[in-house]
Structures are given as C-alpha cells and as structure tokens.
Amino acid sequence: MGKTTVAHGEFLFAGLNSFEPGQEHASHAHEGEDQLYVVLEGSCLVQVGVQEERLSVGDAALALSGVLHSIRNPGPSAWWCWRYWLLPRASSHPRRRSEALRINTR
Hints:
Elements: E1 2-8, E2 12-19, E3 24-28, E4 34-41, E5 43-48, E6 51-56, E7 59-63, E8 69-72, E9 79-86, E10 100-104
Antiparallel strand pairs: 1-2, 2-9, 3-8, 4-7, 4-9, 5-6, 5-8, 7-10
C-alpha cells in the first residue's frame, strides 16, 4: 500500500493512495474529518458503515467523521485513488448524518 501527500492546507488534505491486489486498509474511523475517495485506476471494495460497494474508475465514496470505513483491492490489478480529507473547522451549519454517499462521476 502506498500513500503520497499531494497538498495539505488549513482545511483540506489531498493525497494519492495505491493498493496492490490483495492489499487492504482495515476498518477505521476519523473523528472530526470527512474523507472522500475518488477512484483513478482499477477497482476496489469500499465499506462505509454497513454499506459495501465495488467502485471503479470515476466512482467516489464519502466516509463522514466518526463512521467506520475500509478499502480492499480484490485484484486483479493495482488500484489508485485520490483521497481528500476535509479537516475540522467551526461551522454553524447543521450536517446531515448519513453514513455514506456514492457518487458516480462517469
């Protein structure tokens, strides 16, 4: 598994992740940080909360703060994605507390 930081600002982090076939990032959560994964190459199985979906090029998954999520590359080829973290900041806007959002960008 490879991770590279592309940009890190006051409210946004952007990086690239890569997983070889069979690699995974075990279930975990981030308090105070939302994460958005956008698939660039290959496909993966993403679980956010209780929902699991296979994502491929152009798909995205959103894991909101505090929600367990994991990623696995079942193969047969390498998988690459953009990974964005929306960092904590004070906000007066109420947030919708859904666990996951799948975005089809194709």
